[in-house]
Amino acid sequence: MTSFPAGERISVLLPLPLSGPLDYLVGDSQSLAAGDFVRVPLGRRHLVGVVWGRAASPDKHLNCRPVKELLPLPPLPKASRKFVEWVAQYCLAPPGAVLKMVMSVPKALEPPPVKTRLVAVDPQPDFPMTPARKKVMEFAWLPMSAADLAKSAGVGTGVVKAMVTLGALTEIEGIEDEPPIPDFARPGPSLSAEQQEAADQLRQASGFAVTLLEGVTGSGKTEVYFEAIASALARGEQAVVLLPEIALSAQWLARFEQRFGTVPLVWHSDLTDAQRRRHWRAVSLGSAKVVVGARSALYLPFPKLGLIVVDEEHDGSFKQDEGVCYHARDMAVVRGRIGEIPVVLASATPSLESAVNAASGRYRHLVLPNRHGGASLPDIELIDLRRDPPPRQRFLSPKLQEAVAACLAAGEQALLFLNRRGYAPLTLCGACGFRLQCPHCSSWLVEHKSHGKLQCHHCGFLAPRPAECPNCQAEDRFTPCGPGVERVAEEAASLFPDARIAVMASDLLTGPGAAAALVERMARREIDLLIGTQIVAKGHHFPLLTLVGVVDADLGLSGGDLRASERTFQLLSQVAGRAGRAAHKGRVLLQSYQPEAPVLQALAKGDAKGFTEAEAEDRKAGGWPPFGRLAALIVSGEDNEMVEKAAALLARRAPRDGAIDLLGPAPAPLALLRGKFRRRLLLKGAKQVNLQAYLRKWLGSVALPSQIRVQVDIDPYSFM
Fold it and tell me: Most CB contacts within 10 A, which of 23, 258, 383, 516?
C-alpha cells in the first residue's frame, strides 16, 4: 500500500455532493495511505473524509491546508473505494454523495465509549453462596454489564451489586461486545436431492460468478443459500444478504438462528443510532461475519466480503428513486465483480433482466421446481367479476365468500390480499363530486379509519376528515370510493362475525417487533383470517394457511407502466405462494374484471415460463429493457412555469444522436410531489449506447436557474 509522508499533497473525498475530491497536505508527523479516514478543514468546519490518493496536481507550492488528524479506524477497503467510483460514474452522481451512503453513521467514526463490565473471580471460602448468587456465577465467566448479567441469570440487579461488594465479581473496562460468530459447522436441516445439488454448486463457487437461484414458493431457496454462507464463513470471509423488507423478516432471522446458532447482524432504518454505530463499526472491523439488511447494507465497509445474496431479487424496493438513484440488485453484481466474489440472486419469480441473463449464459441458473417436504403448489382459479359480481358497496364476490366460509369451517386459515392501504383510496363529496386531494401532491387523500385521518401516501400529509365539503359546504356528504384493506376487513367482519381477523399493512405496523408479533400470532393459530397488502407476500410461512383470495387482481395492470404485467405476475405469484405450504392443499382465487388478460391467464395455468418468454418478446420488439436502455430526467421546482420552461430548454438543447430517442418533456404522472412541480424526459437507446456520456455532454451544455433541480435516473423502474 502506497503511503503519503508529511508534506505530500493528497486528495480527500468528503461525503458531500461535490464534483470530486479536494486537495490537502499531509500534516507534520503524519503518514497516510489511501482509504484512511481523516479529519480535514473545510471553511470554518472540520469534516471527516477518506484519503482517495495522490493529488492530481501535486504542486506543493499551491495553497493547501493540512490534514487535521488521522482517525483510529481501519481504512476504507480498496473494493469499497472502487465501488464508490463505479456507482458515481454509472449513476451520474457526485462521488461524495455515494461516499455518504458508505459513511452513513457519522458517530461510528468516533472512538466507541468505554463500558464497565463485570466478571467472576474466585470467591473466598466463607463467601455466602445463595441459589441466586450461584446462578449469577454460572453466567459471569463472560464479561457483561450488571443489567445483562442480572437478566441472563434471572435475578434482580441488587443480587449482582451485592456480589460486587462482597468481591465475587470484579469490574473491568472494555469496548463494546463483539457480535456472536455464526457456527458454520452446525448441522443444517435435511435437504432434498434438488436442494443438495444446488447447495453443492453454490459451495463450490469461487471468484466472481452470478447465480440465479430460482425456486417455486416453498422450495427451500433460503436453506440452499445458507450453505453458501456457511462456505464463506468456513473460508473466514464475510457475507451480506439483502432482503426487500428487513423489518418484516422475523421468520428469516429465526431460520438463520436455527441453522447457525445465532442471529446475524441486521442493518435497516429502524435501528437506533447506537445500534447503527455498533453495527457499522463491527462490519468495518471485520467482527460482523454475516449482515442481513436492506439495500443500503451493500455500501457497508466490508474488509473481507466473500459472498453477496440478494433474496427476492425481483422486488421493486431494491430500487432507490431519490438521492443517488440505483438498483441494489444490479449494484450487488457490480460489487461482486469488483471484489471478485460470488453473487446469488434468489427468487421464485425472477426479474426479466435476470431471466434473460440466465438464458444467455451470463448467469448460472439453478432451479428448484418442487416444494420442499412433498407439499404441492396451490390451484389458482379466476373469478370473473362481470359474471359473479359482489353485492353493491361490497368487494368480495359470492364465490370468494363461500370459499372463505368453507376454509374457516374446516379450521384452516385464509388470507385476503389487496395491495392498497387504508380504508378507501378516494373520498368525494356526494353533493358536488369534489375530491379530497393532497395540497402538496397531485394525488388523492387516502382515508384511514384506524387513525381517523386522511393521508397522502407520497408526502405523509395528514388531515382530519372535514365535516363539510370545502367546495359546496354540504355537511356529512363525503363518500368513500373503492376499497382499501381496512374496508375489506370491515366487510369480512360483517360476513364472518366469529372469525378472528387481523390486518397486515405497513402503516399499521409500528416496527419489526409489531410485524414479528403478528406473524407469531398467525403461526400460533390466533388469527383465522388475515387481510393484508404486499408485505404479506414476502417470505412468510403459515402452515395452516390454505386459501388466498386476491380482491383486485387488476390493480397493478393499469397506467401503462413498462413493467406492469411483470410486477403483477410476480406479486400475485408470491401472494399465491402463501397457500398450501404444508400438509394441506392450497387454493387461490383471483377476482378480476379482465380475466382474459395474458398475465392472469399465465397465473391460472401456472405457466411462468410462457409468461416470461412472451414478455421478453414484447420488450425485445420495442427495444425496451433488458434489450435496450433507458434514462430519465426529472425536472422539478416550486414554480410550475419555470419548471416547464427549463424542461423545454433541456429538450431543445439535447444533442442530436440517431441512436438515442428523446421522449418528452411531459408532466410526470405525479406532476406535483411534496410541493415541487415535475416534468419528465425519457432517453431510449440500444443496449450498447453510452447514455452516461450523452447525458454528461447534454447536461454540461445547459445552464438552468438555481431554483431548478434535475435528477438523473439511469435504468428507471418507476415512471411516477
Answer: 383
